[in-house]
Amino acid sequence: MKESVQxxxxxxxxxxxxxxxxxxxxKRIATDLIAKLLFLEKQSTHEPITxxxxxxxxxxxxxxxxxxxxxxxxPKVCTLCVREAHSMAAxxxxxxSPGARWATTNSAISFGRVSAGDSMTAEKQSHLVRMEEExxxxxCRHTGMTKEQAAALFxxxxxxxxxxxxxxxxxxxxxxxx
Length: 178
What we know:
Helix content is about 45%, strand content about 20%. The protein is α/β, with parallel strands linked by helices. Helix 2 (about 25-45) runs parallel beside helix 3 and helix 5 (about 120-145) crosses helix 6.
């Protein structure tokens, strides 16, 4: 009887311990990415995993699930922004293992406020405030920024160059080969 396999188990990226994040983050994408990270951890807790990021961001809940998984993995998780990392993708980039967070020279990185469409009840507003506070706390923990610095970064929504991202502790290195 043939053993059941995940459709991505023969994936050439996974064989090289590479997990791409190249789309908007939603529950389905997060679940797939987390499954791949856990699969690679099961293969080896000593070999690093590289998460390539080119994403406009997306769901806060899904992004936090990815970050919490990265934080609990045994292997080092190297993060690499290959062009853009916005909103949740930027926070995932910063959540990589210390000393192993990269961006290519042509990357654009930005943070933004949590938003939820048009209809805003008091309960929904309160939930959004709590989520944004959690994102600020995660950002501070991984970058060394103060709460005030992180909140200002979220509020500004501005695009950061790789050099600015490195200066703020979001990444550690700028990859010069593009």
